[in-house]
Design brief:
Distance between the termini: 27 Å
Strand order of the largest sheet: 3-2-5-6
Number of helices: 10
Order of helices and strands: HHHHHHHEEEEEEEHHEEHEE
Structural class: alpha+beta
Shape: flat
Helix content: 40-55%
Mean pLDDT: 76
């Protein structure tokens, strides 16, 4: 009963959190259960400012998208949300913010109805039980008699059948021995063939190493690099190389085709003939100035200048996608103005901005694909 009451308190707390946020913000929907994407990012930022803490996007979807919930979140989240709506802790919130009597009465009537149903069920079972108990012994007794009679009829032949099977086993034993050694020999041959195939692949494999540098500065790329190796008739195999590290690849193929991409560089498809290729090769990546500018504007403190420059840089017809790292939403579109508003707010979420892809047409950005990477200090 205490747990049910706590769940009622939590549902009431969610309503207070929604009302508190709506005092100074205008999300896409007033109902907190319908918030997603940028609305959640803005709410996380407001929570950080007012309560000095944060919750993860996964936690938001778990506890705010479902109503009523079946379990309480952790106490640190309960304390954080209580602080957000003006209470010192979850304990103080429950002490000072009582649940309305009509809600408690509704819950009590539901419990009484459930208990009444549970009491009726055993009585119905008792009415049916005596009939089963009376009939069961007769059936069991009859079945046991039939089984005993069958055993009496079968037993006389047991001795003769056992002798015959013994003769058959003795006559078949030489053939069983031959089959045993035959299977052992086949297994050894298969194991040798498997070892030969593995050794053959390694014998003719060669290792190649690729170093990625900035084409303008001739310096090692300071960001992670993604490589997709393409083979005919096969799905691409993706590798991720850490900043300042080389890509090491072993193969016995004579040709290599790979797509190389990095956040601040243009995506490039490389084809290499490996027959006479060097063991270490340097590959120059061309900088993507537009991605660099978008990132630079997102970190600028001059918000008025930032809005003006973004307005000139992005086409009015640009298609803008936000990609999410969760199981609820994979992608969401937004307008140019909403994107500029997002980049013009003093939010700490911009520190985790990751521009995945941009496309340019006539000197203007016509496509932007970005995401907000998860921070390490979010409450799980």
């Amino acid at each position: 009963m205490l747990t049910d009451l706590d769940l009622l308190y939590f549902e009431q707390l969610k309503i207070l959190v929604q009302a508190k946020y709506l005092e100074n913000h205008s999300p896409s929907y007033d109902d907190i259960s319908r918030w997603k994407g940028i609305d959640i990012v803005y709410f996380q930022e407001d929570l950080r400012k007012k309560a000095k803490g944060n919750i993860s996007e996964k936690t938001f979807y778990t506890y705010f998208k479902t109503s009523p919930v079946s379990k309480l979140p952790r106490i640190d989240m309960l304390n954080l949300l209580s602080l957000y709506v003006g209470f010192a802790s979850w304990y103080e919130y429950k002490k000072l913010k009582k649940i309305p009597e009509e809600i408690l009465e509704d819950k009590a009537s539901e419990s009484e109805a459930i208990n009444h149903t549970i009491e009726i069920l055993p009585k119905e079972e008792e009415k049916r039980q005596p009939i089963q108990e009376e009939e069961a012994p007769k059936t069991i007794h009859k079945e046991s008699i039939e089984k005993d009679e069958q055993m009496v009829l079968i037993n006389p032949s047991l001795e003769s059948s056992s002798i015959e099977s013994l003769h058959e086993n003795l006559s078949a034993s030489p053939w069983l021995q031959i089959k045993k050694y035959l299977w052992i020999g086949v297994s050894i041959i298969l194991a040798c063939l498997l070892a030969l195939l593995i050794f053959y692949d390694r014998l003719f494999e060669k290792t190649y190493e690729f170093k990625f540098v900035d084409a303008d500065r001739s310096q090692a790329v300071q960001n992670s690099v993604e490589i997709k190796v393409l083979k005919a008739g096969e799905s691409p195999i993706t590798y991720r190389v850490k900043p300042n590290e080389n890509f090491i690849y072993s193969t016995k193929d004579k040709n290599l085709k790979m797509v190389v991409s990095s956040i601040f560089y243009r995506t490039d498809t490389l084809i290499r003939n490996l027959e006479n290729a060097p063991e270490i090769e340097t590959i120059e990546l061309k900088p993507n100035e537009y991605n660099m500018m978008l990132y630079s504007y997102s970190t600028s403190k001059d918000f008025k200048r930032r809005r003006a420059e973004l307005g000139n840089l992005i086409s009015d017809k640009a298609i803008i996608y936000q990609v999410f790292d969760n199981q609820y939403f994979n992608v969401e579109t937004m307008t140019k103005q909403r994107y500029i508003d997002f980049l013009s707010l003093p939010t700490t979420s911009l520190e985790n901005l990751d521009v995945i892809e941009t496309k340019i047409d006539k000197g203007k950005i016509v496509l932007i694909k970005f995401r907000i990477k998860k921070s390490h200090d979010e409450i799980k």
